[in-house]
């Protein structure tokens, strides 16, 4: 082959390789560099769930809140750091009630086995899957290869993360802005509220006032919230710690906890209603859609290739 053709072919190959490494996450990304990544994460998370059943719920919520702001780049996990101009996303209201300690424990275990290899953004994605499956939910292969940001974007948090007081249109536009769809992704991912807890501050405004809140359930919530704004109750009142499709049957029975949950079913004529009904009728359909939407969410603007870094401590840039 003449040398100019050879260099052209090499350039094409190089472009494909570079382009590919930027676009593509893969379940086998760590390969021999950290062959036990999944079992290490599972081991730490199993122990965490034994002492706090909410550990998996905290992680998947953190993954969602991370991906919604500048993509799935671990930016959420950075603490305040004036010297490096980091104004932590954790300080904004939606992020204040997340427990980040399990992420630290997972990172420590991974640094012991494969130092400097596994990103904090990937820890969130992988531990989310494991947390779901430990609670009885679906298994799936998690695409990996995200790198960690060297910046945070606190100013973007409130505009990006849905508030429990948003109406359906506002929830939908936040999903669209992130690159998710406002029907199937919204309904499927909201199904993560099949486990975990919420504070009274996020739903007590509905008690005794919301026509789409079952009166008996409303009375139960009124009792709980005598404990104040920080009193906790189950997001899924029927099977609180199981990852199943009862979240959707609750909505059909006006037993959604957050107004944003209930709106998916109670907004007459909305595209979300039929999807709630089909997930309520088939756990398999819910699980299949949930897996697809989780993979889609995990693919939101990851840093790959030589962008960002692999943090050694998820709370600080290197
Ligand atoms: C669609 C709009 C959503 C809204 C408005 C919303 C809102 C909330 C609120 C207000 C809480 C309770 C927080 C507190 O008491 O401080 C909560 C908890 C939770 N959220 Fe969401 N969320 C949404 C979507 C999601 C998604 C997409 C996921 C994951 C894929 C998720 C996972 C969770 C989990 C697991 C908890 C329980 C956490 C715990 O036990 O500490 N949420 N959410």
From TrEMBL:
InterPro entries: Haem_peroxidase, Haem_peroxidase_sf, Peroxidase_pln, Peroxidases_AS, Peroxidases_heam-ligand_BS, Secretory_peroxidase. It is an enzyme of class 1 (oxidoreductase). CDD domains: secretory_peroxidase (cd00693). The keyword Membrane does not apply. The active site is at 65 (proton acceptor). The record marks 61 as: Transition state stabilizer. The keyword Oxidoreductase applies. GO terms for molecular function: heme binding; lactoperoxidase activity; metal ion binding. Ca(2+) 1 binds at residues 66, 69, 71, 73, 75, 89. GO terms for cellular component: extracellular region. Residues 1-23 form the signal peptide. Substrate binds at residue 162. Its EC number is 1.11.1.7. Keywords: Calcium, Disulfide bond, Heme, Hydrogen peroxide, Iron, Metal-binding, Oxidoreductase, Peroxidase, Secreted, Signal. Ca(2+) 2 binds at residues 194, 236, 239, 244. It catalyses: 2 a phenolic donor + H2O2 = 2 a phenolic radical donor + 2 H2O. Its cofactor is heme b; Ca(2+). Disulfide bonds join 34-114, 67-72, 120-314, 200-225. Heme b binds at residue 193. Residues 24-318 form the Plant heme peroxidase family profile domain. GO terms for biological process: hydrogen peroxide catabolic process; response to oxidative stress. PANTHER family: PEROXIDASE 58, PEROXIDASE 72-RELATED. Belongs to the peroxidase family. Ascorbate peroxidase subfamily. Belongs to the peroxidase family. Classical plant (class III) peroxidase subfamily. Removal of H(2)O(2), oxidation of toxic reductants, biosynthesis and degradation of lignin, suberization, auxin catabolism, response to environmental stresses such as wounding, pathogen attack and oxidative stress. These functions might be dependent on each isozyme/isoform in each plant tissue. This is Peroxidase. It comes from Corchorus capsularis (Jute).
């Amino acid at each position: 082959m003449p040398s100019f053709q050879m260099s052209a072919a090499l350039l094409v190959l190089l472009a494909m390789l570079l382009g590919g490494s930027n676009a593509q996450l893969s379940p086998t990304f760590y390969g021999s560099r950290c062959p036990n990544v999944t079992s290490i994460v599972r081991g730490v998370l199993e122990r965490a769930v034994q002492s706090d059943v909410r550990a998996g719920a905290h992680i998947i919520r953190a993954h969602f809140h991370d991906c919604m702001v500048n993509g799935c780049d671990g930016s959420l996990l950075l603490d305040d750091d004036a010297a490096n101009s980091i104004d932590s996303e954790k300080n904004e209201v939606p992020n204040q009630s997340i427990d980040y300690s399990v992420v630290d424990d997972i990172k420590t275990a991974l640094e012991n086995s494969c130092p400097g290899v596994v990103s904090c953004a990937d820890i969130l994605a992988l531990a989310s899957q494991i947390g779901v499956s430990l609670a009885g939910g679906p298994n799936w292969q998690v695409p990996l290869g995200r790198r960690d940001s060297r910046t945070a974007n606190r100013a973007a948090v409130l505009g990006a993360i849905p508030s429990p007081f948003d109406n359906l249109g506002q929830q939908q536009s936040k999903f669209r802005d992130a690159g998710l769809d406002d029907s199937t992704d919204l309904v499927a991912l909201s199904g993560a509220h099949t486990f975990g807890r919420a504070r009274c501050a996020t739903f007590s405004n509905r008690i005794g006032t919301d026509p789409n809140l079952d009166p008996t359930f409303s009375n139960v919530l009124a009792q709980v919230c005598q404990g104040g704004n920080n009193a906790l109750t189950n997001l899924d009142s029927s099977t609180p710690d199981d990852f199943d499709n009862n979240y959707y049957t609750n909505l059909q029975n006006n037993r959604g906890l957050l107004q944003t949950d209930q709106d998916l079913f109670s907004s007459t004529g909305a595209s979300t209603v039929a999807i709630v009904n089909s997930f309520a009728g088939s756990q398999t359909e819910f699980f299949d859609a949930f897996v697809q939407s989780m993979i889609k969410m995990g693919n939101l603007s990851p840093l790959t290739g030589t962008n960002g870094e692999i943090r050694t401590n998820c709370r600080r840039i290197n």
